[in-house]
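haha ok so turns out i had the wrong file open the whole time. this is the CORRECT one, sorry everyone. sequence first:
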Amino acid sequence: MRTLTRAVKRNDIGGEPLPAVFDTFGKNKIVIRRSEVSMIAGQPGAGKSTLALALALRMQVPTLYICADTNAHTMAMRLLSMITGKSQDESEVLLQNPEQIRPELAKAGHLFWSFESAPSLDDLDEEVQAFEEVWGIPPELIVLDNLSDLASDGGEEWSGLRSAMKEIKFLARETNAAVLVLHHTSEAFDKGPCPPRAALQGKVAQLPAL
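then structure:
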């Protein structure tokens, strides 16, 4: 137990903003903060993974990227395209020569990956522990791509998602990391470019701070 006055003297109290990398985010006061859960939600194919990867690349903070939704080859192709400015088709050709692209991919040396296709909450915890063991610090950003691929404990799907979000919120507080969760919305909502919060699968809109 501590007073708020004493708590704010610490350097890891939570809520510290990660670097702003897009002017549009800044103008609209969209801030991803440490010790909080933020969510990017949209229909399949809307570009959630591409946006999350761009954020992780440009923020330049130690990042653990849990990529259950997309394979390593595709993510490497996207990453190389973002770094070099070449098209994804051109980047895929470059991937055939690992030595040539090694210096380019080294520019994303702050990103560390897990490509487990159906990670459990225990797997997520172990990945964070391994990160801390190797680097001596917890990640400042954890990307979970995406929530629907997180393995449930065998219970009902939507209640499993809500339980997982509670654990993810605890993880954010425990590690002081910003946790960025990608999640699907229902395809039944097709009006306008942005589905409403009610379209979130499993109705898990309560816990994300952003």
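DSSP finds eight helices and five strands in the chain.
again sry for the mixup
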